[in-house]
């Protein structure tokens, strides 16, 4: 568990720096920071610009059901808008909307305000747009561009905290798909891959700590698509070898859907399996950063939100379809 302890310490430092307004260059140090900047420029030239910088128009009502619609806002980066897709049905936002409508047996009003290339610093404008629809639930996919642009982790997390709190202040449930493991991206060469992997996971852990503390839930993307990417990258990556294909987007959407449903009270909380359950928040965040599809949310132990080692968190590896028969 040495890896978890190290990531937990890094998450604590980054989250603390974010909360206190510190710079907190990076847990990886100045040398790795400079390396990431230099080699990320080369990676950008290799990746190039994908076809079109916007996803297909996806706003609308999904699900042919009676009753008032559930209002879903989708925020974040290119993954949130399904960059590279031409059919809205193949974007993660529409897959989430259709899935949520099926579980709730109610229509879902979807508003996509994400933007290609967006880093966490650009979430404020997106939240302004999302609040206009008075969302019941907001889903954010963010973090990859903070790594690619070598943004200070503390700065990145500080913007995310503000976004989550603003959404929670109006009563919206918030689910954040944390920073994916950029070490799976083929155009990134070594040692950039190693640096990107470490930085991605440390940011993901710090995002988890911050989001849960602000009242949201997180779902770890980590290397969610890693095995498929390595086995069959032609099917899981899009033409630019950086953004997901339709299968990749489906993996992301279906990893998040159970947590969206649970946040809205439509999905029962699962029984913990071995290695899951209650953990101090920093350890839960570190564990989730290594375990794709893992949800982390706040919880209480004996009526208390915190213990000797910090706040308590519930750690679950949700599985699509689990609990539906009991709902």
Question: Can you describe what's shown?
Answer:
- Helix content is 44%, strand content 14%.
- The protein has helices spanning 2-20, 30-47, 78-81, 92-104, 123-131, 144-148, 153-169, 192-213, 226-231, 233-236, 246-263, 281-290, and strands spanning 60-62, 70-76, 108-112, 137-141, 173-177, 217-219, 277-280, 294-298, 306-307, 310-317.
- The longest helix is centred in the middle third of the chain and has 22 residues, at 192-213.
- Mean pLDDT is 78; it is low at 47-52, 227-241 and 320-327.
- Helix/strand-derived category reads alpha/beta
Global geometry:
globular
C-alpha end-to-end distance:
36 Å
Rg for CA atoms: 18 Å
Order of helices and strands: HHEEHHEHEHHEHEHHHEHEEE
Fraction in helix: 40-55%
Q: Report the total helices.
A: 12
Number of strands: 10
**pLDDT < 50 runs, ≥5 residues:** 47-52, 227-241, 320-327
Mean model confidence by pLDDT:
78
Beta-strand percent range: 5-15%
How is the main sheet built? Answer: 10 strands, mixed
Give short descriptive properties of this protein:
327 residues, alpha/beta, 12 helices, globular
Concise summary:
44% of the residues lie in helices and 14% in strands.
List the helices and strands and how they pair.
Elements (H helix, E strand, L loop, with lengths): L1 H19 L9 H18 L12 E3 L7 E7 L1 H4 L10 H13 L3 E5 L10 H9 L5 E5 L2 H5 L4 H17 L3 E5 L14 H22 L3 E3 L6 H6 L1 H4 L9 H18 L13 E4 H10 L3 E5 L7 E2 L2 E8 L10
Parallel strand pairs: 2-3, 2-4, 4-5, 5-6
Antiparallel strand pairs: 1-3, 6-8, 7-10, 8-10, 9-10
């Amino acid at each position: 568990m040495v890896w978890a302890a190290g990531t937990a310490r890094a998450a604590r430092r980054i989250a603390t720096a974010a909360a206190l307004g510190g710079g907190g260059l990076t847990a990886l140090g100045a040398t790795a920071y400079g390396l990431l900047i230099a080699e990320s420029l080369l990676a950008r030239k290799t990746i190039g610009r994908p076809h079109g910088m916007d996803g297909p128009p996806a706003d609308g009502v999904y699900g042919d059901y009676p009753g008032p619609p559930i209002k879903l806002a989708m925020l974040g980066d290119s993954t949130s808008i399904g960059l590279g897709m031409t059919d809205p049905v193949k974007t993660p936002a529409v897959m989430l909307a259709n899935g949520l409508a099926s579980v709730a047996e109610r229509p879902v009003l979807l508003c996509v305000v994400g933007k290609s290339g967006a880093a966490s610093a650009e979430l404020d404008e997106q939240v302004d747009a999302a609040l206009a629809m008075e969302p019941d639930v907001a889903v954010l996919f963010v973090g990859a561009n903070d790594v690619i642009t070598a943004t200070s982790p503390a700065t990145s997390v500080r913007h995310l905290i503000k976004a989550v709190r603003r959404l929670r202040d109006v009563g919206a449930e918030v689910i954040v798909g944390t920073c994916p493991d950029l070490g799976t991206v083929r155009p990134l060469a070594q040692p950039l891959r190693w640096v990107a992997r470490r930085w991605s996971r440390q940011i993901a852990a710090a995002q988890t700590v911050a989001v849960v503390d602000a009242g949201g839930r997180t779902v770890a993307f980590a290397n969610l698509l890693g095995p498929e990417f390595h086995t069959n990258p032609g099917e899981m990556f899009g033409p630019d070898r950086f953004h997901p294909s339709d299968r990749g987007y489906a993996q992301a959407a279906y990893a998040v859907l159970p947590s969206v449903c649970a946040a809205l009270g439509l999905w029962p909380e699962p029984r913990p399996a071995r290695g899951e359950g209650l953990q101090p928040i920093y350890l839960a965040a570190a564990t989730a950063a290594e375990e794709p599809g893992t949800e982390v949310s706040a919880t209480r132990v004996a009526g208390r939100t915190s213990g000797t080692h910090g706040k308590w968190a519930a750690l679950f590896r949700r599985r699509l379809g689990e609990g539906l028969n009991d709902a």
